[in-house]
């Protein structure tokens, strides 16, 4: 199993999960409601082509860690996220493919929490990632 973002491949037995696939900001229809001067409700709805959130995240469950990635993989993603206005092909472990760019509206585009607090750090150390993207 793997997840590919641009040229970076996240590969492992457990991978980060798309946590907001069905959450706020994931609708395929955009809707705006307003009240007319007569007091009638006016609803405008249209197909939403972009702006769906794609947040890939690992997590802890007790002593178990799900979706950890190596420090080297997270650094490679961070390097991709530093390119302004760049879009990347994202291929999820189930084969679905999307065009996306990194999102910074609700935190850093790429962040990670150490699985183990070890010094010195090594490229092979594992981190619990949060990777924020938006479909374009």
Provide a descriptive summary of the structure in words.
- A hairpin with a 5-residue loop joins β4 and β5 (41-47).
- The protein starts with a strand and ends with a strand.
- Helix content is 8%, strand content 46%.
- By secondary structure, the protein is mostly beta strands.
- The mean pLDDT is 89.
- It has 1 helix and 13 strands; from the N terminus they run βββββββββαββββ.
- It has one helix at 71-81, and strands at residues 2-5, 8-11, 17-18, 29-35, 41-47, 53-57, 59-61, 64-66, 69-70, 88-91, 97-102, 110-114, 126-135.
- The chain is elongated and about 70 Å long.
- The strands form 3 sheets. Strands 1, 2, 3, 6, 9, 10, 11, 12 and 13 form a 9-stranded antiparallel β-sheet that branches.
Please give the structural blueprint.
Elements: E1 2-5, E2 8-11, E3 17-18, E4 29-35, E5 41-47, E6 53-57, E7 59-61, E8 64-66, E9 69-70, H1 71-81, E10 88-91, E11 97-102, E12 110-114, E13 126-135
Antiparallel strand pairs: 1-2, 1-10, 3-6, 4-5, 6-13, 7-8, 9-13, 10-11, 11-13, 12-13
Defining traits:
13 strands; single chain; elongated; 9-stranded antiparallel β-sheet
């Amino acid at each position: 199993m793997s997840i590919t973002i641009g040229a970076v491949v996240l590969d492992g037995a457990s991978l980060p999960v798309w946590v907001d696939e069905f959450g706020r900001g994931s609708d395929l229809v955009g809707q705006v409601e307003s009240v007319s001067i007569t007091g009638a409700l006016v609803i405008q709805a249209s197909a939403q082509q972009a702006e769906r959130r794609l947040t890939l995240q690992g997590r802890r469950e007790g002593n178990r860690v799900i979706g950890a990635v190596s420090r080297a993989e997270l650094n490679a993603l961070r390097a991709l996220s530093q390119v302004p206005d760049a879009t990347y092909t994202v291929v999820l472990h189930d084969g679905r493919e999307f065009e996306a760019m990194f999102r910074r509206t609700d935190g850093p585009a790429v962040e990670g929490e150490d699985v183990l607090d070890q010094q010195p750090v090594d490229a092979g150390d594992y981190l619990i990632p949060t990777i924020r993207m938006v479909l374009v």
